[in-house]
């Protein structure tokens, strides 16, 4: 499976405890990452400043579902 273009559920739904540029306290669950661009891409992708946890997200049917909305719900439910 490949990432769904324009999804970015993994950049919104989960919390990230690692400090990063623009978000020194990390990212709360349900809040879009400050590094998420208008076209739903990561401006830290491929850079050393990108949190390690972000590199661990891989597209999988059980987490991504059949739509962006479903992916956000699945990942949000895992947070709660």
- Mean pLDDT level: 94
Strand content: under 5%
List unreliable stretches of 5+ residues.
none
The value of Rg in angstroms is 12 Å
* Separation of the first and last Cα atoms: 26 Å
* Individual helix count: 3
Largest sheet entry = none
Question: Which structural class best describes the helix and strand composition?
Answer: mainly alpha
> What sort of overall outline do the alpha carbons produce when their principal axes are compared?
globular
**Helicity level:** 25-40%
What is the helix/strand order?
A: HHH
Number of strand segments: 0
Brief rundown of the structure:
The chain is mostly helical and 80 residues long. 25% of the residues lie in helices and 0% in strands.
Provide structural commentary.
This protein is mostly helical and 80 residues long. It contains three helices and no strands. It has helices spanning 52-55, 61-64, 68-79. The longest helix is centred in the last third of the chain and has 12 residues, at 68-79. The radius of gyration is 12 Å and the shape is globular. The protein starts with 51 loop residues before the first helix and ends with a helix. InterPro entries: Puta_zinc/iron-chelating_dom, UPF0153_domain.
């Amino acid at each position: 499976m490949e990432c769904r273009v324009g999804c970015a559920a993994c950049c919104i739904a989960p919390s990230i405890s690692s400090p990063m540029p623009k978000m020194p306290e990390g990212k709360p669950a349900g809040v879009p990452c400050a590094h998420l661009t208008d076209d739903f891409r990561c401006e830290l992708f491929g850079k050393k400043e990108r949190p390690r946890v972000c590199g661990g997200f891989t597209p999988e049917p059980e987490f991504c579902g059949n739509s962006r909305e479903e992916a956000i719900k699945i990942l949000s439910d895992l947070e709660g």
